[in-house]
Amino acid sequence: MKKWLKKHSNFNFIIGSVITGVLLLTVLIGIFATPYDTTQMSAADKFAKPSLAHWMGCDNYGRDILSRVMEGMGNTFLIAVLTVLIGTVFGVIIGALCGYFGGLLDDILMRINDVLFSFPSILLALVIISLLGTGRLNVTLALGIAFIPSFARIVRSEVKKQCSLDYVKSAALMGAGHMRIIFVHILPNIMPVLLSSVMIGFNNAVLAEAGLSYLGIGVQPPAASLGRMLSEAQSFLFTAPWYAIFPGLVIVLTVLGFALLAEGTTEEE
Amino acid sequence: MSESLVRLKDVEVSFASGGIKKTEKQVLKGVSFDIKPGEILGLAGESGSGKTTIAKVILKMVDIKAGSMERTTNHPQMIFQDPYGSLNPAYNISWIMQEPLRMSTKLNAAQRQEKVIGMLKEVGLDETYMERKPGELSGGQRQRICIGTALMREPRLLIADEPVSALDVTVASQVLALLKRLHEEKNISILFISHDLRTMYNFCDRIMILREGRIIEEGAPKELYKNPKEEYTKLLLASAGI
After folding, report:
1. Which end of chain A has the smaller Cβ count within 10 Å, N or C?
2. What is the pLDDT of residues B157-177, one digit of tens each?
3. Residue in B with minimal Cα distance to A167
């Protein structure tokens, strides 16, 4: 771990870690406590400007925006993490099997993959949501399924590359079975590429969740979501710009933080 | 078969190539030979003559189209040409060298570790290499690790596919000396694949010349180099400056 950190201690990695670390810390704090109740309305605080009492101001119902951003980040992050988890687990299994065995299995699975891949992931998610219905779980499932093809393709190509190396043939001669060769011998060698893809995938999942919530089919009210907050704030862009600025800024920082981390992990010292 | 570790009889191998309209390329055309216990058999020929395919036939890594291959040894091992690609870069030397034992024995971690230390000594390295990763080693050290790893399962046959062609002259001669010593100490048969006839002269007991998938000539090095019958063999010897 120490060696890995030393190897990747470049500017992008450090800045990305700081931004992501601060955001994750905020999410963690938000799980246990927020400055105000996220659903409590207050007519007196309607469109209150950012102040010491309300650091990010208040929305059209007088709800504290910082509290809602903290809750919204939690929801968005949770959906993004689960989405990437589904995409990675199934993508790795499908991609690794296709890349390693090739042949008919590869042809069939990759053609199905190509069909799914030809749809933009948010459009594919919309189709799946229209079948499953809205809600946090369904959005996660829909985005997870939509993310499988891209991970499968990356893993397949990396596994194919590794299979041409002699250490894989050597492992077979040692007596290792196919599954051991794939998951013990090959997989650790594609981790850097996979890790970077996971981080980029996380960014895409954050944006996709925000997009779906913005369209009103993601996280449902009264629960907070960064995308839904942006959607609600657009009517008050000129009267209460802070309502849109802070959730938007958090999305930008999240994407920036993880993009820099992804860049930093592929870049060596 | 009683006196042979491996016997190939009229072996033919073809590979399909091309896109939609696939064509078949015959790589081996009726190859027959034996490898005897304790023998170092050289297999020489230019690139694309089918040398590595013969190795793959013995290791059952390719399907035979016609003919037969019989093996009395269960798990022949191979030393590859490229020492940089034949060790798993994700693990340290100790893990890599223990892997054959994990697959074939029920030894515990401490026993495996002990065997690795012993093998490292046999290939001229010490236990300080255990925690290093392949990326931290030179080409010669890596090839020694490859040889050691291949010997962990105590094979009776070792296939060395151009094991020194990626190494510089000094390191190459050290690796060859190591192979020769291990062959003598452990009575391992070696199929030594190379295009370098100079190296093969001192190393092999018998040499076969392969051309376009056929064995065109074979014999003891002294005899073969002195009185080559085939024009192609003469050409190979001349190009090697012999």
Report:
1. N
2. 999 999 988 788 888 888 899
3. B86
Query: Considering only CB atoms, which residues of chain A are within 8 Å of chain B?
Result: 165-167, 169-176, 185, 188-189, 191
User: Do residue B80 and residue A166 have CB atoms under 8 angstroms apart?
Assistant: yes
Show Cβ contacts of residue B77 under 8 Å, excluding neighbours closer than 6 positions.
A173, A174, B150, B151, B153, B155, B157, B158, B159
Q: How many domains does chain B have?
A: 1
> What DSSP element (H or E) covers B63?
none
Beta carbons of B188 and B161 less than 8 angstroms apart: no
Nearest to A173 among B77, B81, B82 (CB): B77
Please check whether residue B42 lies inside any domain of the structure. Answer: yes
In the predicted structure, residue A9 carries a pLDDT above the cut 90: no
Residues A86-100: pLDDT tens digits?
A: 999 999 999 999 999
- State which residues form the domain around B150: 37-60+75-239
Amino acid at site B142: R
- Counted residue by residue, chain A has a size of 269
Please indicate whether, in this complex, the C-beta atoms of B88 and A189 are within 8 angstroms of each other: yes
Give the list of residues 6+ apart from residue B21 with CB closer than 8 angstroms, or none: none
Kindly report the CATH class assigned to A57-266: mainly alpha
- Chain A interface, best mutation among B99, B112, B115, B191, by max A CB count within 10 A: B99
Check CB contact under 8 Å for A167 and B87: yes
**At B126, which CATH number?**
3.40.50.300
Contact A96, A161 (CB under 8 A): no
* Three-state DSSP class for residue B241: coil
The answer to whether A189 contacts B89, with C-beta atoms less than 8 Å apart, is: yes
